[in-house]
Structure formats: structure tokens, C-alpha cells
């Protein structure tokens, strides 16, 4: 997914533009290194994204300029977020709506650069669409004017990535990226989440080994962001979220409920694999879920089929046998061939898998010993159960069993998809279709 990078000249009092104060930034020496920063920035960008006011200023000035920088500015694709601009005359310019920006990020290509455009930046930040801020801060106070962030901006923490002086006049180049947000669960555990998009609230619940940065969950979030405000969180015990012993499924239900509360008090929910089982448990317990979508909750419905227990997985992790816990979960729980697991153990990512081995007991507690729990008949909200046509018989049978247990559910096959190898766009589109129906 492409990143949106906001680049701005800023005063020490946060102003990026003040009427009557034209050219204030050019009164300072930013040196060859500062010039190189701006040249590299525009050279690496795949497109410009602008508000109408900034666009009109650029469109008047840049076509008259020559040189490498001007050639790139004039030739690159430009997108203007405006509801009033009808006939853009600067070459390669397309007028779009704010709701189109999330889709623009999903398109292939290099990153998208935003210059100036304070009101647009504020709207993008509100929707969680800004990936990076590059601020060239000048040692001057203007005392008023247009600020990059408005007085009513929502509180959000940023992570400082780089801080470099440029030139000889005290100009600083600062690069920031948004930090995750947090919500506090009922037991005091801090749960980390990202929020992206705009529209009705959707909360995503991941399965085993995953965090909110998992490519599948992040891809689903990106697919849904053009229509929904998506809350993608780290389940307790992994990523940036905390944990409190002893574990219980009820605590995870409370985590999800806290996310829904942060989202406005009710939300639609998507859960993948064991995250789907957790979402079902939350719905059965009465969490304020309005619609529910799950992808292959990994129950085992075959006769005599049982799954590794939470107790034995927890015992292995507590004994320091984290690799053994992962191996047991993958071979007996996920039905992965031992030789495939052996191949994984030789890969560089294996230590990251072992790092979350203690949470495998959580997955086992959520899913249970195999059969679809009778209590899921208490799920009263409309539900779609997604199942990949290329998944194992066990996963497809479980999806059918869940559908049959719920009073208001339908089964939707996803052609060519498989458990653990699903296309996030395909899942996201199926979820979007159900949530908008």
C-alpha cells in the first residue's frame, strides 16, 4: 500500500501560511542538505495530493518554471481533493473526493506527497490516512495564520523518526510517524489499535500469531477504509498491547467491547480464524455488535477430533518450550504437515513466531476442544460466515456448522481462497458487501 507523506514548511509557532507574510521560509539558509532533502522527496514521490487552494497556487507558478524539480512537479500525477474545481488546467491533474483517497492509497505506485493543504491534511489525519509528517521547521514566530493542525484536532501521539539540522540558520528537518492509539480494557490492560478511514465503525479481530501489522489484517483494513472507520487492534499479549494473568476468554471479550466503546458504542465486527471464534463469543455474550463477519472459525467438527488444549499449550510455553508449543499448535491444531513446520523452523521469522507462543493457549481457550459451542445459538446479529473454496474439508465443515448454529447467518464461499493463504482484498470486498447490504 502506498504511503501518504505530508511535507510542510512550519514556523516554531506551528504556522505554515500567514496572509501578507509571503516567502518567510526563504529568508533562511537551509543549505545544500536542505535542498537535497526536498529534491529527494519530490523525486521519490509517485503523485501529489493537494487541496484546492494549494493546487491553484502551484498551478499558477510551476508551469512557468524550468529545471529538474519543475519538470517532476509538472509531469507527475496530481490529485486535487475538491467539490468545486471542475476544469483543472495543470497537466496530469485529476479531481477526486475525500472518500477516494483510501482507494488511491491502495493503487500500485510510489508514495503520495502532500504539500501545504492544511485543511486537507487535517481531514486526512482525522481519518488515519497520514503515514508520515516531514516538517522543515524554521526559527521564526509569525504569531498567527494557518496552522497545519487545527485547534479541534484529536489528540494523537507521534513518533520522532529523524531530527536533522539543515543549513546554517537553525532550520530543523523533523520526521514523525503516527503512534498507535490505546484503549483501556476492564481489567486495566492497555490495548493498542490503529484507526483508518471514515464511515460506520468496523473492528477487526485477528487470529493466531497475528498482530495489527499482519499483511492480511492490514490489507483488509485498507480495503474497508474507503467506506468505514476501521479499528485494527493487537489482541492482548502480542504487539503493542499489554496482558494480565490469569487469562480468560471473558477478558478478551472485554477487550473487544472496549474497542467498540471507543468506536462510538456499537460497531460491526470482522474476525479471522480464531479471531472469528472470539468475535462469535463476544456476540453471544451480548457485546454491542450490529453485524458480524467471520472467516473460517477453526472448530473441529469431525467425529473424535480434538484440538490441543489451552492447558498443554500454556504448560509448554511456561516451561520455556516455546518452539514445542508452536509445533503442537501447527501440527495438531492447524493440521500442518510436520515437514512443513520443520521448514518454517529454519526460516528467519521463526523467532517472531516463538515470541507469541504464550498466546496460543489463548486461541485454544477461545476455540475450545473442537465442536461448535451450543452457546453460539445466542448470537442474534446478522452474520456472514466466509469459507475458502481451497481450504481443507475441516475448515469448510466448520463454517457450515457455525452457519447452521446461528439463527441469522449465511454462508458465503470465497473462490480460490484458503485458510492462512487468503487474499485480503477478496476478504475485504466480501465483508464490505455484507456490511453495506
UniProtKB/TrEMBL annotation:
Question: Boundaries of each AB hydrolase-1 domain copy?
Answer: 202-419
Q: Which InterPro entries match?
A: AB_hydrolase_1, AB_hydrolase_fold, DHFR-like_dom_sf, RibDG_C, Riboflavin_Biosynth_HTPR
SUPFAM superfamilies recorded for this chain? alpha/beta-Hydrolases, Dihydrofolate reductase-like
State a single Gene Ontology molecular function. 5-amino-6-(5-phosphoribosylamino)uracil reductase activity
Name all Bacterial bifunctional deaminase-reductase C-terminal domain ranges: 2-169
Pfam families xref list: Abhydrolase_6 (PF12697), RibD_C (PF01872)
The record's Gene Ontology biological-process terms are: riboflavin biosynthetic process
Residue ranges of coiled coil: none
Q: What name has this protein been given in UniProt?
A: Dihydrofolate reductase
Species name for this entry? Actinomadura hallensis
Amino acid at each position: 500500500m502506498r504511503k501518504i507523506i505530508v511535507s510542510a514548511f512550519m514556523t516554531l509557532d506551528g504556522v505554515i501560511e500567514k496572509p501578507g507574510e509571503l516567502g518567510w521560509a526563504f529568508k533562511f539558509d537551509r543549505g545544500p542538505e536542505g535542498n537535497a532533502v526536498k529534491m529527494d522527496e519530490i523525486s521519490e514521490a509517485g503523485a501529489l495530493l493537494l487541496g484546492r487552494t494549494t493546487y491553484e497556487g502551484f498551478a499558477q507558478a510551476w508551469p512557468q518554471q524550468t529545471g529538474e524539480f519543475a519538470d517532476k512537479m509538472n509531469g507527475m500525477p496530481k490529485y486535487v481533493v475538491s467539490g468545486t474545481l471542475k476544469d483543472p488546467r495543470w497537466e496530469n491533474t485529476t479531481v477526486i473526493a475525500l472518500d477516494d483517497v483510501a482507494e488511491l492509497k491502495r493503487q500500485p505506485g510510489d508514495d503520495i506527497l502532500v504539500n501545504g493543504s492544511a485543511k486537507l491534511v487535517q481531514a486526512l489525519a482525522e481519518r488515519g490516512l497520514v503515514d508520515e509528517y516531514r516538517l522543515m521547521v524554521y526559527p521564526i514566530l509569525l504569531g498567527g495564520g494557518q496552522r497545519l493542525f487545527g485547534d479541534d484536532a484529536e489528540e494523537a501521539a507521534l513518533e520522532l523518526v529523524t531530527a536533522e539540522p539543515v543549513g546554517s540558520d537553525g532550520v530543523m528537518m523533523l520526521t514523525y510517524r503516527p503512534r498507535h492509539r490505546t484503549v483501556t480494557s476492564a481489567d486495566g490492560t492497555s490495548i493498542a489499535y490503529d484507526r483508518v478511514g471514515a464511515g460506520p465503525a468496523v473492528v477487526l479481530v485477528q487470529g493466531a500469531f497475528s498482530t495489527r501489522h499482519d499483511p492480511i489484517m492490514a490489507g483488509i483494513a485498507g480495503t474497508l477504509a474507503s467506506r468505514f472507520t476501521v479499528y485494527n487492534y493487537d489482541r492482548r499479549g502480542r504487539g503493542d498491547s499489554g496482558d494480565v494473568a490469569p487469562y480468560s476468554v471473558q477478558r478478551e471479550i472485554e477487550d473487544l467491547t472496549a474497542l467498540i466503546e471507543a468506536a462510538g458504542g456499537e460497531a460491526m465486527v470482522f474476525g479471522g480464524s480464531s479471531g472469528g471464534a472470539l468475535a462469535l463469543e463476544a456476540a453471544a455474550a451480548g457485546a454491542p455488535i450490529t453485524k458480524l463477519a467471520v472467516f473460517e472459525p477453526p472448530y473441529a467438527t469431525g467425529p473424535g477430533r480434538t484440538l490441543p488444549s489451552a492447558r498443554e499449550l500454556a504448560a509448554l510455553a511456561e516451561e520455556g518450550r516455546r518452539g514445542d508449543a508452536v509445533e503442537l499448535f501447527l501440527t495438531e491444531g492447524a493440521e500442518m504437515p510436520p515437514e512443513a513446520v520443520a521448514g518454517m523452523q529454519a526460516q528467519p521469522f521463526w523467532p517472531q513466531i516463538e515470541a507469541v507462543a504464550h498466546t496460543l493457549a489463548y486461541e485454544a481457550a477461545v476455540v475450545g476442544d473442537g465442536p461448535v459451542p451450543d452457546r453460539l445459538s445466542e448470537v442474534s446479529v446478522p452474520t456472514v460466515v466466509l469459507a475458502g473454496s481451497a481450504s481443507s474439508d475441516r475448515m469448510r465443515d466448520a463454517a457450515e456448522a457455525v452457519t447452521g448454529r446461528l439463527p441469522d447467518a449465511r454462508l458465503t464461499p470465497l473462490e480460490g481462497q484458503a485458510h492462512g493463504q487468503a487474499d485480503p482484498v477478496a476478504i475485504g470486498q466480501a465483508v464490505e458487501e455484507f456490511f453495506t447490504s
